[in-house]
Design brief:
The complex is a heterodimer of chains A (140) and B (766).
Chain A: H1 4-27, H2 35-53, H3 55-62, H4 66-86, E1 96-99, E2 109-112, H5 113-139
Antiparallel strand pairs in A: 1-2
Helix pairs in contact in A: 1-2, 2-3, 2-5, 4-5
Chain B: H1 14-31, H2 34-40, E1 43-50, E2 55-61, H3 63-86, H4 93-112, H5 116-134, H6 141-172, H7 177-182, H8 192-206, H9 215-218, H10 224-233, H11 237-245, H12 247-250, H13 254-277, H14 281-300, H15 305-336, H16 352-366, H17 372-386, H18 390-417, H19 432-450, H20 452-468, H21 485-502, H22 504-517, H23 521-543, H24 548-569, H25 584-602, H26 606-626, H27 630-651, H28 666-689, H29 695-706, H30 713-721, H31 723-745, H32 752-765
Antiparallel strand pairs in B: 1-2
The chains are: A mainly alpha (140), B mainly alpha (766).
Chain lengths: 140, 766
C-alpha cells in the first residue's frame, strides 16, 4: 500500500498499539486483558506495520522469526509449569512470591509463575499469528 | 559408506566433552547403587506429576533396570568418546552428539520407568531418536530409506504395545509395573491373550524377531558407533527388557512358553546362518545380534532359575562383546578402508591393541573358558535342559552356539591372525579414544569370567530376582561346574563350531544360493509401502477435490446430520420465543447482524462479502459487551479484525466471484445454511431453557481471589485453574500456525489461503 499518510501514521500507531498490548498483558489478572488479548493486539500492531511498510521491514522490526517467538513462548509457558516442581507442588500450580510482605495485601508487588505463563501465551499468540500473516502477505 | 574423518582434525570439542562427561557421571551415579540393590532390594523413586489426574512419574530401580542402566551409561560413555574421534572433523558432529545423547537419555528412561505409559513414551522416544541416528547420513537415499523402515516397523509395534498397555491398565486397574508384578501372573484373565499378543508385537518388532527382523541389518546404514550402541546393548534389547520386566505378570501360560520358544529359537538359528552368509563384517555382526536377541527371547520363555539366569548372563556377556566387536570393526574400517571378510587378514602386526581386544571379545563370543561367555553358555545349556520342549530347545541352542563359535572366528580371528589380504590402505593402530572402548569392554568380559562370583552377586542375581519376582537362590555362575551334561554340550559346540569355521566358505556359497530362492521380506516391505502410497493417492483423488466449497458443504452437512439425528431419536420438544424484555440496544445489534448477513448473501464482490462478515462479527462482539463479558468481546473483536485484514490481503489475489456459471450450487447452499442455522438455534434455545447450573461459576467467583489472587475470573481460569488446557491450546495455536505456514510456503499457488487462515483463527478463538 503506497500511502504516505498511512506509512507515516502507522509508525506512531504501531508504537501505541504495541505498548497497549503489553499494558493489556500485564493488567490481565485483575482487569480485562491477558496473554491472548495482548498477543492479538501485538500481532495487530505488527500487521499494521507490515501493511504500511511491507512484510520485510516488519520482520526486521520484530528482530526474531515469528515461528521462533511462538516456540520460545511455548517453552516459557512450560517452564512456568515446571517451576512448581521446585517447590514440591503438582505440575502448573501457581507459585507466588511476595516482595516486601507476606500476603497480597501487605506486599508491594509479587513475582509469580502465573504471569510468566501468560507471557508465554502472549508470545505464542503473537508469533503464531504473525508467522501466518507474513506468510499470507509474502504469498500475495 | 561415506564417513569422513580426518586423522589430524581436532576432535575435542564442547559437544563431545559435555556428552561424555555427563554420561560418565550417570554411570558413576548408578554404580553406587550396586551394593544397595544387591543388598537390600529395589529402590523406587516416585514423583507426583498431576495428582488430580492420578498421573505420577515413577521410577523403579531393581537388579534388571540397574544392569541395563549401567550398560547404557557405561557403553554409552565409551561409544560417545569413540564417536568423537570417529567423526572428527565431520561438519555435523554436534548434531550427532545431540542425537546420541538424547537416545541415551530415552533409553535410560525406558529401563527405569515403572509406569507403563511413561515406559511407552520413552519407548517411542528411542524409536524416534534411533530414526535420526540411523538416517544420520541423510544425503544417502539408502540410509534414509532404512531409517524410515526401522521407524515405521518399530513404531507400528509401538502402537500395538500402547493398546496392550491400555488393556492392562483397564483390566488390572494400575499402570505401575511394580504393582502388576507383585500381583503375579494375569494368565487367568479373559483379556490375557489379547494383552500378550499386543505386547509381544511391540517387543518382537523392537527386538527384531523373525519375521520382523529385516530392519535391523538394514539399520547398519548408521555410522558404526551408532550400530555399536543401538544394536548391541541398547535399543534392540528394549523388547527383551520389556519381556523380562513383565515376566512375572505375563508369563505363566502355555502360550507364553510356546510363542517365545519358537520365535526365539527360529530367530537365533536363522540369524546364525545369515551371519555366516555375510561377507561385510558389520552385516555379520548385525545378524549375530539378531541371534543374541533370539536366544534371549528363547530363554525368557522359561521360568526356572537356570533359564532366567542364562538370559541375564547372556545379556550381560553379549552387550560387552558385541559393543566391543562393533567398535573394533569401526577401527578396522577406519584404518584399512574395508570391512570385507574375504579381504581382511593379518592385521595383528599393524594394530596389536585392537587385535588383542578383538581376540578377547571373540573368545567371549565363542564361549571359551575362562570367559564369562563360557559360563553363560554352560548356564544356557543347563537352562535349556530344564525348559519345556527340551529337545527342540537344546538342538536349536546347540546349532546357534556352534554357528556363533564359527562366526567369532570369522570376525575376531581371521582379520587379525588370518592370511594377509590385499588391503586398500596400509593399516595402522587406531587412536586411543577409539581403542579404549573395545579394550575396556573385552577386559571386563575376561574379568567377570575369572571372578564369576562378583558378576553374579552384583549384577546377574539381582536381575534374576527382578525377573523371577522372587529372591534368587544364586550360586549358578561357576567357571567349573564339574563333569555334567552342559559341559559335554559345550565340547560338542566347540567341535561343531570349528568344523563349521573350516568349511565356512562353501557353506556361505550354499547359503547364498538358498537365499536367492527364498522370499525376500525386505523387497516385500517396499512393495507394501508402494501399495499404501497408491491407496493414499487414489482415495485422496476421490475425497480431496481441492474445491473449498465442497469441503465446507461436506462439513456442514455432517454437522446438520449430527444435530438432527439425536433430536429425532430423543425428541426434546419445541421452543417458545419470548421477546418481551429485549431492549432497544439488543434489537439494534440483532438488526446489525441480520444486515451483515444479508449483505454477505447478496453481494457478488468478495471484498463486500468480507466486510459483511466483519459486521456480523462485530455484532457478536457487541452482544458480549452488553452481557458484560469484556474479555470475550475484546478477543472476538481482535480476531474479527485480523480475519478481515488477512483475508483482504489474500482476496486481492483471487478472481472476482463468477456471476455466470457458479450460481447453480446456490440453492443447495441456501437450503443447507437454513437447516444448519435453524438447528443450531433450536439446540441453543433448548439448552438455555434448562436451569443454569451455577456450581462452577460460584466456585470460580469465590476462589479466583482467595486462591489465585486475581479479580479477572476469565484470566484466572486461563492461567491458573485450567492452565493445562490453556497450555494444550497454545500448543494447538503453534501447530495450526506452522501447518498453515507450511501450506502457504509449500508452493500452493491458490485456494487454501482462506481456509488455512480461517482454521487457525477458529482455533485461536477458543
Amino acid at each position: 500500500m503506497n500511502s504516505i499518510i498511512f506509512t507515516a501514521g502507522a509508525r506512531i500507531l504501531v508504537a501505541l498499539l504495541f505498548v497497549f498490548s503489553l499494558f493489556m498483558l500485564l493488567r490481565g489478572h485483575h482487569l480485562p486483558g491477558g496473554g491472548f488479548i495482548g498477543g492479538l493486539l501485538g500481532a495487530v500492531a505488527f500487521i499494521v506495520y507490515s501493511l504500511a511498510c511491507g512484510p520485510a521491514e516488519a520482520k526486521a522490526a520484530l528482530r526474531a522469526s515469528p515461528e521462533g517467538i511462538a516456540i520460545v513462548g511455548l517453552g516459557i509457558a512450560l517452564l512456568a509449569g515446571l517451576v512448581s516442581f521446585v517447590f514440591g507442588d503438582p505440575f502448573f500450580t501457581g507459585q507466588w512470591y511476595w516482595v516486601g510482605g507476606d500476603s497480597y495485601e501487605t506486599s508491594l508487588f509479587s513475582i509469580n509463575s502465573v504471569l510468566v505463563f501468560d507471557i508465554g501465551v502472549y508470545l505464542v499468540v503473537l508469533g503464531g499469528i504473525l508467522s501466518l500473516a507474513f506468510a499470507v502477505e509474502e504469498e500475495t | 559408506m561415506a564417513e569422513p574423518s580426518d586423522p589430524n582434525a581436532p576432535w575435542v570439542n564442547p559437544a563431545g566433552v559435555i556428552t561424555v562427561a555427563v554420561t560418565a557421571a550417570l554411570f558413576v551415579f548408578f554404580l553406587q547403587y550396586l551394593p544397595v540393590i544387591a543388598g537390600t532390594g529395589p529402590v523406587p523413586w516416585v514423583w507426583d506429576w498431576i495428582p488430580s489426574l492420578d498421573i505420577r512419574l515413577s521410577f523403579w530401580l531393581d537388579g534388571l533396570s540397574l544392569m541395563f542402566a549401567l550398560l547404557i551409561t557405561g557403553i554409552g560413555t565409551l561409544v560417545m568418546l569413540y564417536a568423537a574421534r570417529y567423526l572428527a572433523g565431520h561438519p555435523q558432529y554436534n548434531r550427532f552428539a545431540l542425537y546420541l545423547f538424547s537416545f541415551m537419555l530415552s533409553m535410560l528412561g525406558l529401563v527405569l520407568a515403572d509406569n507403563l505409559i511413561a515406559l511407552f513414551v520413552f519407548w517411542e522416544l528411542t524409536t524416534f531418536t534411533s530414526y535420526l541416528l540411523i538416517g544420520f547420513s541423510h544425503t544417502d537415499p539408502k540410509s534414509r530409506r532404512n531409517a524410515l523402515q526401522a521407524l515405521l516397523l518399530t513404531a507400528a509395534g509401538g502402537l500395538a504395545l500402547l493398546a496392550g498397555f491400555i488393556l492392562i491398565g483397564i483390566t488390572q486397574g494400575t499402570f505401575e509395573m511394580s504393582q502388576l508384578n507383585a500381583a503375579g501372573s494375569m494368565a487367568e484373565h479373559p483379556a490375557y491373550l489379547g494383552i500378550l499378543i499386543l505386547v509381544l508385537l511391540g517387543a518382537f518388532t523392537k527386538s527384531a524377531q523373525v519375521p520382523f527382523h529385516f530392519w535391523l541389518p538394514n539399520a547398519m546404514a548408521a555410522p558404526t558407533p551408532v550400530s555399536a550402541y543401538l544394536h548391541s546393548a541398547t535399543m534392540v534389547k528394549a523388547g527383551v527388557y520389556l519381556l523380562a520386566r513383565m515376566h512375572p505378570s505375563l508369563s505363566g501360560s502355555d502360550v507364553w512358553v510356546w510363542v517365545l520358544t519358537i520365535f526365539g529359537a527360529v530367530t537365533a538359528v536363522f540369524a546364525s546362518f545369515m551371519a555366516v552368509r555375510q561377507t561385510d563384517l558389520k552385516q555379520t555382526l548385525a545378524y549375530t545380534t539378531l541371534m543374541a536377541l533370539g536366544t534371549l527371547v528363547l530363554f525368557l520363555a522359561g521360568s526356572t532359575g537356570y533359564a532366567i539366569t542364562a538370559a541375564m548372563t547372556f545379556l550381560l556377556v553379549h552387550s560387552l562383546y558385541k559393543a566391543g566387536l562393533f567398535l573394533v570393526i569401526g577401527i578396522v574400517d577406519h584404518a584399512t578402508g574395508t570391512r570385507d571378510a574375504n579381504v581382511l587378514g593379518g592385521l595383528a602386526r599393524a594394530m596389536p591393541i585392537t587385535a588383542a581386544a578383538a581376540a578377547l571379545s571373540g573368545l567371549a563370543m565363542a564361549g571359551i573358558p575362562p570367559f564369562l561367555g563360557f559360563i553363560a553358555k554352560e548356564v544356557a545349556y543347563a537352562g535349556a535342559l530344564e525348559m519345556a520342549l527340551t529337545g527342540f530347545v537344546v538342538i536349536m541352542a546347540l546349532a546357534a552356539f556352534a554357528l556363533m563359535f564359527a562366526v567369532a572366528l570369522i570376525v575376531a580371528w581371521k582379520p587379525f591372525f588370518g592370511p594377509q589380504g590385499d588391503l586398500p590402505r596400509k593399516p595402522h593402530e587406531g587412536p586411543w579414544a577409539m581403542v579404549l572402548g573395545p579394550a575396556t569392554l573385552s577386559v571386563i568380559g575376561l574379568a567377570f569370567g575369572l571372578m564369576p562370583g562378583v558378576a553374579a552377586y552384583y549384577l546377574v542375581e539381582p536381575a534374576v530376582a527382578a525377573v523371577m519376582g522372587a529372591p534368587d537362590t544364586g550360586g549358578r555362575l561357576k567357571l567349573w561346574a564339574g563333569f555334567n551334561l552342559p559341559l559335554l554340550l559345550s565340547l560338542i559346540t566347540f567341535a561343531l563350531g570349528y568344523v563349521l569355521y573350516r568349511f565356512h566358505l562353501p557353506l556361505r556359497e550354499r547359503l547364498a544360493q538358498i537365499e536367492a530362492r527364498a522370499p525376500d521380506l525386505d523387497a516385500g516391505w517396499d512393495r507394501m509401502l508402494d501399495r499404501f502410497m497408491a491407496l493414499a493417492k487414489g482415495q485422496t483423488r476421490i475425497i480431496q477435490t481441492g474445491v473449498l466449497r465442497h469441503y465446507l458443504f461436506a462439513t456442514f452437512t455432517v454437522l446438520a446430520i449430527a444435530m438432527l439425528v439425536p433430536l429425532m431419536l430423543r425428541p426434546v420438544g419445541g421452543v417458545s420465543l419470548a421477546f418481551d424484555g429485549t431492549s432497544f440496544l439488543e434489537w439494534g445489534i440483532a438488526a446489525l447482524i441480520a444486515a451483515g448477513t444479508i449483505l454477505v448473501v447478496l453481494t457478488s464482490s468478495r471484498i463486500t462479502a468480507l466486510v459483511g462478515l466483519g459486521v456480523v462479527g462485530i455484532g457478536v462482539a457487541l452482544i458480549f459487551i452488553v452481557f458484560s463479558a469484556p474479555d470475550v468481546a475484546i478477543t472476538q473483536l481482535l480476531v474479527e479484525l485480523l480475519v478481515v485484514v488477512l483475508l483482504a490481503v489474500a482476496l486481492l489475489k483471487m478472481p472476482h466471484l463468477d456471476a455466470n456459471n457458479s450460481q447453480k450450487h446456490r440453492p443447495h447452499d441456501a437450503a443447507l445454511a437454513v437447516v444448519v442455522g435453524g438447528l443450531t438455534a433450536w439446540v441453543l434455545l433448548r439448552v438455555t431453557d434448562a436451569p443454569f447450573d451455577r456450581r462452577l461459576t460460584d466456585f470460580f467467583e469465590g476462589a479466583s481471589w482467595t486462591e489465585a489472587f486475581g479479580r479477572n475470573i476469565v484470566n484466572v481460569i486461563l492461567v491458573d485453574f485450567r492452565t493445562l488446557d490453556t497450555f494444550g491450546e497454545i500448543a494447538v495455536v503453534i501447530v495450526a500456525a506452522l501447518g498453515a505456514y507450511a501450506l502457504l510456503k509449500g508452493g500452493l499457488k491458490r485456494g487454501p489461503e482462506g481456509e488455512a487462515a480461517g482454521k487457525a483463527e477458529k482455533e485461536r478463538k477458543e
